[in-house]
Amino acid sequence: MPEAVRPPAPLRGRRRARRDRAGYLFLLPWFIGMLFTIVPFFASLYLAFTDYDLLTPPEWIGLENFTAMFSDPALLQSLKVTFVYTFVSVPLSLAAALGVAMMLNRGIRGLPWYRAVFYLPSLLGASVAVVLLWRYVFGLDGIVNAFLGRFGVEAIAWTSDPDYALTTLIILHIWTFGSPMVIFLAGLRQIPVMYYEAAAVDGASRWRRFRSITLPLLSPIIFFNLIQSLIASFQTFTQGFVMNNGGGGPANSTLFYNLYLYQQGFNQFNMGYASAMAWTLLVIIAAFTALTFISAKYWVNYDN
Prior knowledge:
The protein is mainly α.
């Protein structure tokens, strides 16, 4: 057969230019969207070094906003609340997600239905309606106290007691384990069954198989879910805002960092200080993400 005739170089160049233009055209919405991200990004960096109240032009004050943070008791309390919330809820949520994923991985009937049921709370957990429902469930006349009352436990003001208010939000976060659960389930499906069969023949217990097979082979998935959960937890806002009407109460026990940032920026019109807080949060998230990546070489297994 005769060889295909190759078009001349000018024609090939015009075709390549048309393809390039088409590619840039499809990327145009992304470039436009980046403008709405990049401009506020650098604007907030500038405002972090200014005194700005949204009504008058910003005044450059250098590092005063950042140094003022060290003497702000409310900010230190918000950091404490956020750290406690993150380092308690994230491990428990991931443990619950992994446990349910292993249960569903046993091949039960109606798996798609169960998977959807467990995944649904993660779609609704941060919504205003669910937080309002949660406030009712843990209210004095709520379902939780009604259940505990059957065992003679006196009613507890879960949402208005500083000792329990944050606990209710931690439970809400654990309840929304659906997203990491689905990812864990997909990872468990990729582990060859022959590994478990060989270990069972050798007399390995279930715990030994879980520790020596499941955890090492699932460690990249655990690492991914851990990073995602850490970043999301540090940015918690809606739960604390809705649960106690935006005040962070009782006694600032649910004053999340993002909630206090909102109060500074839009309640007190201290936008320069709020911008400095936002950049501080960025550094905190980046630091913990970097530490997680550094630690990954000691416990994440990428061997096939």
